[in-house]
Amino acid sequence: MAWDARQRAMLAEMGFRLPAASQAGVAEPEAEVEPDPIVVAAPPPAVVRVSAPMPAAAPAAAPRPVIAASFAGLDLPALREAVSACRGCGLCAQRRHAVFGGGALQRAQWLVVTDPVDDADDAAGEVLGGEAGRLLDRMLLAAGQSRTGEAATAFVTPIVKCRPPRGRPPQPAELDACEVVLARQVELLQPRVVLALGLQAARRLTGLAEPLGRLRGRVHSWRELPLVVTYHPAYLLRSPADKAGAWDDLCLARRTLQTP
Asked: What class of enzyme is it (predicted)?
């Protein structure tokens, strides 16, 4: 595929080096095969000692999230205020700020859902600031999107709005409490494609407990919207060799957006 001058500049800022043939406007060779992801085994379940055998309960199907009465009917500014005062789960007890997200003020083409915020973003009350945020902005621009300015086309929000303590993964009840907010954001923004950044966001939205490498490269569905999974920008700063794979994911999201 040949890239125009703007796209080549954006890709260069992402740290993805195009071959010389591609920079001259000639079709570029295929990207190198991405290395197999590192799979971290889950810890063994705790052993529960009981005095007598207990009958196994049948697993209950997870219900589809519905909009809580306190969030239904709110516009985007009012929803932001409601989230800042939310006490829907225990994460509110230790947060400094609830991180609502930011970007397009009305309809968005892309809804970008990230892993929980880090300590710096919790302190600032903003999602993906610092170097990781600057990398995300370059990634979005390379894909023809933006989360800043009056013509913003993307909205970026964390999978849970309050940072879990000590950086632990959010618990199911915490994810459930925040998914009703995310569902209302979808109703208001009406995105055409969802991009999940990072393993925790990807697993929650796909409903699959697989390594990130196995969730990438295909189009999933969440709330009847196409969903594409990719690496979190903070991970890409630590592992720049995977930026080529992230670019493949962005291209997949672009093709999905262009599909009638």
From this structure: hydrolase
